[in-house]
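Hey, resending since the last one bounced:
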Amino acid sequence: MLEYIAVDGSRAGSGLGALLVAAVRALAPDLPLVAETDDDAVGFYRRLGFAVVALDETDPRWPDRRRYRCTLRALNPEP
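The structure tokens again:
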């Protein structure tokens, strides 16, 4: 599971976040990437090709924010 990914606000939209995800993917191409996020970043994951599913639970730290599970299939899945 991808725990946290963040880019300084001054670099938002520069492609740096996508490069970070690509680097993680290169380390483990035979594993899917799974991230949980909220409304602020769900579009980022969609643009990278992640399948997005809304979750019923909320994060107690931000109870008013919708949560999503984002999954990117493995490049080389095991048979």
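The chain has a mean pLDDT of 88.

Sorry for the duplicate.
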